[in-house]
Amino acid sequence: MPRRKDKSFYFQEIARTFFSLRGAPFVLSSRDMVAISSWEERGIPLRIVLEGIERAFEKYRKRAVGGRKISSLSFCETEILRAHAEFRDRTVGRAEKGESREDKRKRIKIEVERFLKSLPPEAAFLGEVYREAQTVLNRREASEEALERLDARAEELITREADAAVRAEVEKRVRADFPGRPAEELRGIFLIGLVKRWREKFRVPYLSYFFY
């Protein structure tokens, strides 16, 4: 995948999560763009950035007054860097400059094989997507663009097929954490939370290299 396409996915996923948690306006400032570039250049995995953003909003909600909103991604940087430090502590022994793309391909392949081997009945609808991902990962030059498309397809399926109990659990939490938000905004937050909770519950692996 061309580097420009690779970077675009990183930016888009961060922006999507930030906008869903913050709400309108749906525009990143130049300062936000610089911040995202710096995280990408430091090699901070996408899932770690998203974890830091979610932590920042969670802490903000606990102490926010007057209905003010977080206006910039820079507000989240402390939590992102803290999450990254914790991630690095958990991965002591890996190369200081990060894993190679081949190392990441192998790690994703192991995760996909693990998932398919123990595929729970509730997540059987993801089987076809992950078998296709396994085929892609078996190639030495695995297409990152193909893996990202498959990851997006998996999330679309989760939003359609997730069971009522998980939906109710996530909806209840979203309504409690974001009182008074417009219905459309709550819907976006709910979908992100639903996918995240489903992945956690059934240990559904990410397919994009940026999550590793």
- The number of domains is 2
Rg, please?
A: 18 Å
Number of distinct beta strands: 0
Helix fraction bin = 55-70%
> Please, how many helices?
9
Helix/strand order, N-terminal first: HHHHHHHHH
Helix-strand makeup class: mainly alpha
Distance separating the two termini: 16 Å
Mean pLDDT: 84
Give a quick account of the main beta sheet: strands, pairing sense, barrel closure: none
The proportion of residues in beta strands is: under 5%
> Quick one: overall form?
globular
Instruction: Give the low-confidence spans.
Output: 1-5
Explain how this protein is built.
- With 212 residues, the chain is mainly α.
- It has two domains: 1-98, no CATH class; 101-212, no CATH class.
- 68% of the residues lie in helices and 0% in strands.
- It has nine helices and no strands.
- The protein has helices at residues 3-22, 30-41, 46-63, 77-90, 101-117, 127-137, 144-161, 164-177, 183-202.
- Helix 1 packs across helix 2, helix 3 (46-63) crosses helix 4 (77-90) and helix 6 (127-137) runs antiparallel to helix 7 (144-161).
- The longest helix has 20 residues, at 3-22.
- The two termini are 16 Å apart.
- The model is unreliable at 1-5 (pLDDT under 50).
TL;DR of this structure?
This protein is mostly helical.
Chart the SSEs and their pairings.
Blueprint: H1 3-22, H2 30-41, H3 46-63, H4 77-90, H5 101-117, H6 127-137, H7 144-161, H8 164-177, H9 183-202
Helix pairs in contact: 1-2, 1-3, 3-4, 5-6, 6-7, 8-9
